[in-house]
Design a protein that fits this description.
205 residues, alpha/beta, Rossmann fold, 6-stranded parallel sheet, 6 strands, EC 2.5.1.129, FMN, Flavin_trans-like
């Protein structure tokens, strides 16, 4: 039986600093004609406003402004909508990426506290054996943070901290953002050309 579904990903944006990473990830996925199921925590909305200047009272209008012009489609799910399709394992998606991921959300996922749609969707990825990738953005890290990351890593969750690289000689902030988004895409097997790789002819040691 042929699977004719368009590739769909769940993307979460939490209240950790670095919302620009999640926004860019969504834009790249949509530009590849994929479907995105988007979940943004209440704190995530605040960070979008404070870091990226997302002003306005109508969230759907803001999302359309930033994501509406791409080939793919997106569906926004409110954080409290525990009855959304992505809260069920029978709803088929490729996997889930939380970028950036706050330590609070990371802890909820590590301990199975499915008290909102973000944590529940992540729990579904774990129970169904689908890819789950978290991009934590916090420093310094204390022992509880590290223990929670270790717990998730042992369950097969990929942890990609928001750490920039400089070997490819980034010239702009956008270069650094694209590098991290590219590393995330690498980890879930999505081809891209967002940064020059080590060993490429245009990367000098």
């Amino acid at each position: 039986m042929t699977d004719n579904r368009k590739r769909s990903w769940v993307v979460g944006i939490t209240g950790a600093s670095g919302s620009i990473y999640g926004v860019r990830l969504i834009q790249v996925l949509l530009s590849m004609d994929m479907d995105v199921h988007l979940v943004i925590s209440n704190a995530g909305w605040r960070v979008l406003k404070e870091e990226l200047g997302w002003q306005g009272t109508h969230r759907e209008d803001l999302l359309q402004q930033h994501f509406g012009a791409y080939a793919g489609s997106y569906t926004y799910h409110a954080i409290g909508d525990i009855g959304a399709g992505i809260a069920s394992g029978s709803y088929l998606v490729e996997g889930m990426i939380i970028m950036p991921c706050s330590m609070g959300t990371l802890s909820s996922v590590a301990h199975g506290a499915s008290d909102n749609l973000m944590a529940r969707a992540a729990d579904v990825m774990l129970k169904e054996g689908r890819p789950l990738l978290l991009v934590p953005r916090e420093t310094p890290l204390h022992a509880i943070h590290l223990e929670n990351m270790l717990t998730l890593s042992r369950l097969g969750v990929k942890i990609i901290p928001a750490m920039p690289a400089f070997y490819f000689h980034p010239q702009t902030l956008e270069d650094l953002v694209d590098f991290l988004v590219g590393k995330v895409l690498d980890s879930v097997g999505i081809q891209h050309e967002l940064f020059a790789r080590w060993g490429d002819h245009d990367v000098q040691a």
